[in-house]
Amino acid sequence: MQYQQQRGSYPGRREQRAPLLPPNYLANGYFDSDGNLLPEVILDWARAIAYGLYEGRMMTAQLRRFFAEVRRIELMLRRGANFKRVQAEILKLPGYADDAVKKNKAPSLFQRFIEQNIKWAGYGEREFLVGFVNHFECVVAFFPKTHD
Q: Which residues fall within 8 angstroms of residue 100, CB to CB, at 6 or more apart?
Protein backbone atom coordinates (compact mmCIF):
# COMPACT_ATOMS: atom_id res chain seq x y z
CA MET A 1 0.00 0.00 0.00
CA GLN A 2 2.19 2.76 -1.25
CA TYR A 3 -0.58 5.37 -0.90
CA GLN A 4 -0.75 4.87 2.88
CA GLN A 5 2.97 5.46 3.18
CA GLN A 6 2.72 8.73 1.29
CA ARG A 7 -0.33 9.84 3.33
CA GLY A 8 -2.62 11.44 0.84
CA SER A 9 -0.12 12.57 -1.74
CA TYR A 10 -2.24 12.01 -4.81
CA PRO A 11 -3.26 15.15 -6.75
CA GLY A 12 -6.14 17.17 -5.39
CA ARG A 13 -6.05 15.52 -1.95
CA ARG A 14 -5.47 17.59 1.17
CA GLU A 15 -2.91 16.23 3.59
CA GLN A 16 -4.26 13.96 6.33
CA ARG A 17 -2.07 15.09 9.26
CA ALA A 18 -3.48 16.54 12.47
CA PRO A 19 -2.69 20.28 12.41
CA LEU A 20 -1.71 21.87 15.68
CA LEU A 21 -2.46 25.19 17.29
CA PRO A 22 0.32 27.76 16.72
CA PRO A 23 3.19 27.82 19.25
CA ASN A 24 2.38 29.90 22.37
CA TYR A 25 -1.20 30.23 21.16
CA LEU A 26 -3.18 32.36 23.62
CA ALA A 27 -0.57 31.67 26.30
CA ASN A 28 -1.40 35.04 27.86
CA GLY A 29 -4.79 35.70 26.34
CA TYR A 30 -5.87 38.09 23.60
CA PHE A 31 -4.35 41.32 24.91
CA ASP A 32 -0.91 42.81 25.48
CA SER A 33 0.14 44.33 28.81
CA ASP A 34 -1.51 47.64 27.82
CA GLY A 35 -4.84 45.97 27.09
CA ASN A 36 -4.55 46.16 23.30
CA LEU A 37 -5.57 43.26 21.10
CA LEU A 38 -2.45 41.33 20.06
CA PRO A 39 -1.76 41.57 16.30
CA GLU A 40 -1.22 37.80 16.07
CA VAL A 41 -4.81 37.26 17.26
CA ILE A 42 -6.17 38.82 14.08
CA LEU A 43 -3.33 37.97 11.71
CA ASP A 44 -0.83 35.16 12.26
CA TRP A 45 -2.81 32.90 14.58
CA ALA A 46 -6.06 33.40 12.70
CA ARG A 47 -4.40 32.57 9.37
CA ALA A 48 -2.61 29.50 10.76
CA ILE A 49 -5.79 28.14 12.32
CA ALA A 50 -7.87 28.80 9.21
CA TYR A 51 -5.46 26.85 7.04
CA GLY A 52 -5.14 24.13 9.69
CA LEU A 53 -8.90 23.70 9.71
CA TYR A 54 -8.91 23.60 5.93
CA GLU A 55 -6.17 20.97 5.93
CA GLY A 56 -8.18 19.08 8.53
CA ARG A 57 -11.03 19.00 6.00
CA MET A 58 -13.46 21.29 7.81
CA MET A 59 -16.26 22.45 5.59
CA THR A 60 -16.89 26.17 5.17
CA ALA A 61 -20.55 25.74 6.05
CA GLN A 62 -19.72 24.06 9.36
CA LEU A 63 -17.23 26.77 10.31
CA ARG A 64 -19.77 29.47 9.47
CA ARG A 65 -22.46 27.67 11.45
CA PHE A 66 -20.29 27.81 14.58
CA PHE A 67 -19.42 31.43 13.92
CA ALA A 68 -23.13 32.24 13.58
CA GLU A 69 -23.64 30.81 17.08
CA VAL A 70 -20.85 33.07 18.37
CA ARG A 71 -22.53 36.04 16.66
CA ARG A 72 -25.84 35.11 18.30
CA ILE A 73 -24.17 35.25 21.72
CA GLU A 74 -22.46 38.51 20.78
CA LEU A 75 -25.83 40.03 19.88
CA MET A 76 -27.25 39.04 23.27
CA LEU A 77 -24.42 40.91 24.99
CA ARG A 78 -24.65 43.95 22.73
CA ARG A 79 -28.38 44.17 23.48
CA GLY A 80 -27.57 44.48 27.17
CA ALA A 81 -27.68 40.95 28.53
CA ASN A 82 -25.62 40.45 31.66
CA PHE A 83 -22.40 38.52 30.94
CA LYS A 84 -23.01 36.06 33.78
CA ARG A 85 -26.38 35.15 32.23
CA VAL A 86 -24.81 34.68 28.78
CA GLN A 87 -21.73 32.88 30.06
CA ALA A 88 -23.52 29.52 30.01
CA GLU A 89 -24.09 29.92 26.26
CA ILE A 90 -20.37 30.53 25.78
CA LEU A 91 -19.45 27.54 27.92
CA LYS A 92 -21.59 25.26 25.73
CA LEU A 93 -19.36 25.85 22.69
CA PRO A 94 -16.73 23.21 23.57
CA GLY A 95 -19.49 20.61 23.84
CA TYR A 96 -20.82 21.57 20.42
CA ALA A 97 -17.29 21.37 18.99
CA ASP A 98 -16.75 17.96 20.58
CA ASP A 99 -20.01 16.73 19.04
CA ALA A 100 -18.97 18.02 15.60
CA VAL A 101 -15.64 16.19 15.85
CA LYS A 102 -17.35 12.95 16.91
CA LYS A 103 -19.67 13.23 13.90
CA ASN A 104 -16.70 13.89 11.58
CA LYS A 105 -18.02 17.35 10.76
CA ALA A 106 -14.95 19.09 12.14
CA PRO A 107 -11.28 18.17 12.68
CA SER A 108 -9.87 17.77 16.18
CA LEU A 109 -8.03 21.08 15.68
CA PHE A 110 -11.40 22.83 15.79
CA GLN A 111 -12.18 21.33 19.18
CA ARG A 112 -8.76 22.41 20.50
CA PHE A 113 -9.30 25.89 19.02
CA ILE A 114 -12.68 26.27 20.74
CA GLU A 115 -11.49 24.85 24.06
CA GLN A 116 -8.43 27.09 24.18
CA ASN A 117 -10.49 30.16 23.33
CA ILE A 118 -13.25 29.45 25.81
CA LYS A 119 -10.67 29.43 28.61
CA TRP A 120 -10.28 33.14 27.87
CA ALA A 121 -13.60 34.10 26.24
CA GLY A 122 -15.59 32.66 29.12
CA TYR A 123 -13.71 34.88 31.55
CA GLY A 124 -15.41 38.18 30.77
CA GLU A 125 -17.37 40.28 28.33
CA ARG A 126 -14.34 42.11 26.91
CA GLU A 127 -12.46 38.86 26.36
CA PHE A 128 -15.42 37.43 24.51
CA LEU A 129 -16.41 40.48 22.44
CA VAL A 130 -13.06 42.06 21.68
CA GLY A 131 -10.85 39.00 21.86
CA PHE A 132 -12.71 35.89 20.76
CA VAL A 133 -15.28 37.36 18.37
CA ASN A 134 -12.61 39.32 16.48
CA HIS A 135 -10.28 36.32 16.42
CA PHE A 136 -12.94 33.89 15.19
CA GLU A 137 -14.10 36.42 12.57
CA CYS A 138 -10.55 36.55 11.19
CA VAL A 139 -10.28 32.75 11.17
CA VAL A 140 -13.43 32.66 9.04
CA ALA A 141 -12.08 35.42 6.79
CA PHE A 142 -8.76 33.62 6.23
CA PHE A 143 -10.41 30.24 5.63
CA PRO A 144 -9.69 29.23 2.01
CA LYS A 145 -12.70 29.60 -0.22
CA THR A 146 -13.98 26.20 -1.32
CA HIS A 147 -16.99 24.72 -2.99
CA ASP A 148 -18.61 22.70 -0.19
A: 62, 66, 106, 110, 111
